[in-house]
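Why do we care about 3D structure at all? Because function follows from shape, and shape follows, mostly, from sequence. That is the central idea of this module. The next example makes it concrete: a single protein chain, its amino acid sequence, and then its structure expressed as tokens.
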Amino acid sequence: AGITLTAVDSVSGQPIGTTGSAGAQDGGYSEKAIAIPGTPVRYSMAFERPGTYAVTVAVDGYQAWRATGVVVPRDACHVITVQLTARLVR
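And the structure:
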């Protein structure tokens, strides 16, 4: 994955164990993230696709979160994974 994202509570810093939705957009390209269940829930997106993304995550009971300008680079073979932490506000 070019991007992995973990959601945590902004006050406690504890991982959020409920599944929400996340996605990434690079220009006209957009993709819904794959949620990997567990605590914390991890979202994976931008598989083998370098670019500059806007990343969003929405979890019930929390305000939506967004990061822009997330650059996914590549090496000679694959993308280099960017790891994000979304600090969600209730």
